[in-house]
Amino acid sequence: MATDQDDAVQESERESAESDALASARTESELAAEQEGGDGTPTQLGATRYVHAAFMAAGVLIAYLTGKLLTSFWNSLAEWPAAIEILPSLQRYTEDERASWMMLAGAAVGLLAIVQTYRKEHIRRWAGEVAVELSKVTWPTKETVTNGTVVVIVASAVATVYITLLDRFWSFVTNLVYSA
To answer: For residue 10, which phi and psi values (nearest 5 degrees)?
Structure first.
């Protein structure tokens, strides 16, 4: 009798596990269907797109700043007489050409920096977690922001008028006291 009960419990557990697996598979397929368009292509990447956009923006910023820094360095060297004596080719290019070459060098540095950073699993995981948390944020609507802005402007105007009136009043009182 105990074995019949054990068999029944095992059968029940097996059926439960199978139904959980089916539910899990159904949920995954529903998620995939939601993320795919009618032709089977993904329509959104979720929080991953924000991570990639942030890495791209960081790369562009690094490239721009590095290019400007290198251009400034080259231009200052090109104006220094001792550097020109040692390396006369510093003046071979005009300032515009120097900027172009250094922007290319900056782009290479930016690309290299982002690729090296993106290859680090812990940084990628951290950026993904930040993006997921930011996707959970409830951002205010345009109407809420507009109403808040109007309230701040009106409150600032009222406070300005109030302080101006107090200043004028105390100025009047001070002139009465000290001019007598």
So the answer is: -65, -40
